[in-house]
Design brief:
alpha/beta; 30% helix; five-stranded parallel beta sheet; single chain; 3 domains
């Protein structure tokens, strides 16, 4: 009898948890969370290379408010499912259309690359993240790998157009081949307009892997220790640079990063 009572209590607890989860999903997420969601439509899909695409989203009502460098959770298709995937925003806050740069890194993004069409609805979450170079030191180093250029592109598109840059920035962007380098025209145009923004593009198949030693050589020795460093790219690249920066003596508070793993 005692064992039956314990078992009955266990079943009751499972039922309560299940009911609570169902109510949270069906009531809270469907109705109350709408204030934190934005309705968009896929306006255009631009192929950047065989694996990467830019998805341009047009708002159907109020547009999302965000800070350059943030990311959002997006559900494409507009169905009742609640599957969300995170993507960094590559447009600037002053633009009405929302731009996402997506590379086929996993099953979902590969499926998206193969099937997404203009006109598809999309539900976009509020923006998340504290990846903001404007909170850093005046002199900075940016390190981007592959599709990790996305948040940096958002920053670049948000550069002031009528005034001089108040930051001194070296961007190190590494990809395997020249064909995989994204947004080079925009990057070079920004460098022309803002002399204190200096891009350095490396191709690993030709130049070898980008290293901290190379960055230090082009930035005047150990002066990188006093700079804020912002990184975004594959987890292996980010972790390697993080370890090297720590060994060099760069304080943890000066190292900021995003990783492209869950996509």
């Amino acid at each position: 009898l005692r064992r039956s009572t314990i078992l009955l209590g266990w079943y009751a607890a499972v039922a309560v948890v299940g009911t609570a989860a169902y109510v949270y999903r069906e009531l809270f997420l469907r109705f109350f969370s709408r204030r934190w969601q934005y309705d968009y439509t896929v306006k255009a899909i631009n192929r950047l290379d065989p694996r990467a695409l830019e998805v341009v989203l047009a708002p159907t009502a109020r547009p999302l408010q965000f800070v350059a460098g943030q990311f959002v959770f997006v559900h494409f298709g507009g169905s009742a499912e609640w599957e969300r995937h995170p993507f960094s925003v590559s447009s600037a806050p002053q633009e009405r259309d929302l731009r996402l740069s997506i590379e086929a890194l996993g099953d979902y993004t590969q499926h998206l690359s193969d099937t997404l069409q203009p006109g598809a609805p999309a539900i976009v979450s509020i923006a998340f993240g504290l990846f903001d170079y404007r909170q850093g030191t005046r002199e900075q180093v940016w390190i981007a790998g592959g599709i990790g250029i996305t948040p940096f592109r958002s920053w670049i598109r948000a550069f002031p157009t009528e005034q001089q840059m108040e930051f001194d920035i070296d961007l190190y962007y590494t990809v395997r081949t020249e064909d995989e380098a994204l947004f080079l025209d925009e990057i070079r145009a920004a460098a022309t307009q803002h002399p204190s923004f200096r891009p350095h593009i490396t191709y690993s198949e030709r130049d070898g892997s980008l290293t901290l030693e190379h960055i230090v050589e082009t930035r005047g020795g150990g002066t990188i220790v006093a700079k804020d460093v912002y990184m975004c790219g594959p987890s292996g690249m980010v972790e390697s640079f993080q370890h090297s920066l720590h060994k060099l003596g760069v304080p943890p508070m000066h190292i900021h990063f995003e990783q492209f793993t869950f996509r």
